[in-house]
Fold:
Amino acid sequence: MAIQPDVSVIIPSRDCEFVSATIDDIFKNARGSVEIILMLDGYWPNPPIKDYPNLTIVHKGNAIGMRDSINRGIAISKGKYIIKLDDHCMVGEGFDEILKKDCEDNWISIPSRYSLDPIKWERTRGPIQYLYLTFPFDCHELFGTGFHGSKWHGPKGLVGSYWHLENERRHTKIDDLMIFQGSCYFMTRKHWDFIEGLDEENHYIMYDEAIELDFKTWLSGERLL
Structure:
């Protein structure tokens, strides 16, 4: 029997072989009442998804886009808190209770991010927490041309100091951020409604999701942490 969730996890998914493992991992590591809303953008996962009481699967017959999936998923969510999570992620034990404990109504909270070995399903390098926002438009081999977050490399460049800010600020457990990567973010449903969610696909490029949420939060006098 499904229970009323406190946290709603929204997963937009398109052609991902790891989404089933992601869902299993969320239910395994959640310690409170959690629901998952899986938005399938025009495909059926392989391997198939296991049946869980608090799992809702919405299949969009045609691939419309990530923003549409996120907005639709949150619109039908029931939790006081929402998490958007990519379809190829693992989470830490008790992630839901930890994020609830340390999130104000006017925050977007970003958990520490590590690299994932999806075959072994193990956490590898990290944490990666601090990015800076490029300006003006910057051509990047991964993110393309436009605003995007880039890694602080430190005074020695990439080699040897990729995580220099993480090392310098490792004792600061909650810190203000300039920008985030976008694979996972957490906030109250109240804040999502206040910033009016994501604009339509034709207003932004897909990978500008984090930047849009960041700017809407900043310009409203709120915080990204």
Remarks:
- Helices lie at 19-29, 66-75, 95-101, 164-168, 189-195, 209-219.
- Residues 140 and 212 are 18 Å apart (CA to CA).
- DSSP finds six helices and 13 strands in the chain.
- The radius of gyration is 17 Å.
